[in-house]
Specification:
- With 382 residues, the chain is α+β, with helices and mostly antiparallel strands.
- The chain folds into three domains: 55 residues, no CATH class; 142 residues, Orthogonal Bundle (hpI Integrase, Chain A), CATH 1.10.443; 94 residues, no CATH class.
- 53% of the residues lie in helices and 7% in strands.
- The strands form two sheets. A four-stranded antiparallel β-sheet has the order 5-4-7-6. Strands 1-2-3 form a three-stranded antiparallel β-sheet.
- Helix 5 runs parallel beside helix 9.
- The radius of gyration is 26 Å and the shape is globular.
Length: 382
């Protein structure tokens, strides 16, 4: 391995120039994946600990983790879309990676047919072997993921009796190759016609779900220590990378959208020095008081006795991105009013009428803003 490493450093282009560190790193990365496959399935007498050392690899400039984007991630984890992946092993691996952010290798080679745990309170977890530390770990999963794993366990036991690896490919317990998973995900992207702004198919790897999930969790207000635990990061420094990405993503949304108050009045965003100060209040307010349908405009350092958003609070504000949630809330109140009226429960009707009216007012204001922004965006595109 060391000999090949030295050789890569001497390879030159046709014009006599050496290849860039990025190109050398890509070659060594491909070789590293091949070695992983060989050692996992014992195709050759190579120690499982055989790896390039970090200080042996070409030095690359640090770059931020690549994100898939919330909407793309949602499409790739959608159960209906996942049916397009014909290989059952690949389909489940993509689902688990998309939902949990686990490393591809931890899933493919670290999960067995007894990996599923059902807790007494109806919650589910999966147990896997950490590919880096070689120790068992567990992460919580949603019931829909647990049921998919449960079905796959039954399938694997019926097709490969006696197998132990959840993603074994034959009776010798040879696990699925990592490159096969990548190819299945690439084919799914192409089948769904997911493209970049340049019109090319979006390059997606299973590891990118890890980056996207971590950023989304932090953006939703999950404590960094919890995210660190879910990602199995030994150092908080690794998790802090996603915290910076999260703040950047939230800032970009905040700068582009226009908020309205609980009274339906537009909340103007200041400029200059005042803009930075306003952003800090908005960012801290979103972190300290995570709301399902907007954000809290309460000054930093103050506390609120209410755990949920109050539609009548003068400090509450919301933006067009929350329109689906607000519409669902309005419809729920409308249905309650209809049912109560039919049963003659006047108090319940009146109890739901006030939030119904308030939500209608908010939605009307936000829809006006949304139409205006779409018109501007359409004009710019033209």
């Amino acid at each position: 391995m060391l000999g090949f490493l030295a050789y890569i450093g001497t390879v030159k282009k046709g014009n006599g120039e050496k290849y860039s560190p990025k190109y050398q790193y890509a070659i060594l990365g491909a070789v590293g994946v091949f070695i992983d496959e060989v050692t996992l399935n014992e195709w050759a007498d190579i120690r499982r600990s055989a790896r390039w050392l970090r200080n042996e690899l070409p030095k690359l400039p640090k770059s931020a983790p690549r994100l898939i984007g919330k909407q793309v991630a949602a499409r790739l984890r959608d159960p209906g879309n996942l049916q397009l992946v014909e290989d059952l092993d690949c389909r489940l691996i993509i689902l688990i990676a998309a939902e949990t952010g686990l490393r591809r290798k931890d899933i493919a080679a670290g999960m067995t047919t007894d990996c599923l745990l059902e807790l007494d309170d109806g919650k589910w977890s999966i147990v896997f072997t950490d590919s880096k530390k070689k120790v068992p770990r567990s992460v919580p999963v949603h019931e829909r993921v647990a049921l998919a794993i449960q079905a796959h366990i039954a399938h694997k036991r019926s097709t490969l009796p006696g197998t132990r690896n959840l993603f074994a490919r034959d009776s010798t317990d040879t696990v699925i190759t990592l490159t096969l998973i990548n190819r299945a995900l690439t084919e799914l992207v192409e089948a769904l016609d997911i493209r970049t702004s340049n019109g090319e198919f979006l390059p997606v790897t299973p590891h990118m779900f890890r980056h996207q999930n971590a950023t989304d969790w932090l953006e939703a207000g999950m404590p960094m220590a919890v995210v660190q635990k879910l990602l199995n990061h030994e150092s908080m420094r690794s998790t802090e990378i996603y915290a910076r990405l999260s703040e950047q993503a939230v800032r970009e949304v905040w700068e582009k959208t226009r908020a309205v108050s609980s009274a339906g009045e537009p909340v103007e965003r200041p400029t200059g020095v005042m803009e930075e100060a306003a952003w800090m209040h908005a960012f801290m307010g979103g972190a300290s008081q995570a709301l399902p349908n907007g954000r809290c405009g309460m000054p930093c350092g103050e506390t609120c006795e209410h755990a949920n958003a109050c539609l009548y609070c003068p400090l509450f504000m919301t933006t067009p991105e929350y329109l689906p949630v607000l519409r669902d809330q309005r419809d729920d109140h409308g249905k309650m009013m209809q049912l109560a009226e039919a049963e003659g429960h006047i108090r319940i009707v009146e109890k739901n009428r006030q939030p119904f009216v308030a939500l209608n007012k908010l939605i009307a204001s936000l829809e006006t803003i949304e139409k205006r922004e779409l018109a501007v965006a359409g004009g710019q595109a033209g």
